Amino acid sequence: MIELKITVDKAVELEQEVKDLYQSIVGAPVKEETPAKKEAPEPVKEEASEPVKEAPAPKEEEPAPTVEPEKEVPSLEATREAVKDVMAKATDKTKAKGEFKAFLDSIGAEKVTSATDEQRIQIMDWVASRG
After folding, report:
1. DSSP string of 47-76?
2. Would the pTM count as exceeding 0.70?
3. What confidence score (pLDDT) does residue 22 get?
């Protein structure tokens, strides 16, 4: 967890501190638009203490670990073998292959070997529903 404390006297100073922090993290300056400048000072004053809570990224990282403990991420080899078994057991192999390709498209995977961990979990769920 990252704790961030910024103490400023004016909203303009807070805005500059946020820009400096952004540049140090991202490595590029903040892209500014003229309409955003007019609206930015008011919300910044109200949220001066809130960015400290929102700045850490663990909130974004927490959902992924909660999914993983429930279902173990299968290895690439295990996923490939499971799909091969389903295809081998299918009576109409052409139809099974077409259904599998449609399923891969629906989850956004091009093929099993390029599937992400989450996609491999979904593939194994699909295999379980077929077998």
Report:
1. TSSHHHHHSSSHHHHSHHHHHHHHSPPPPH
2. no
3. 77
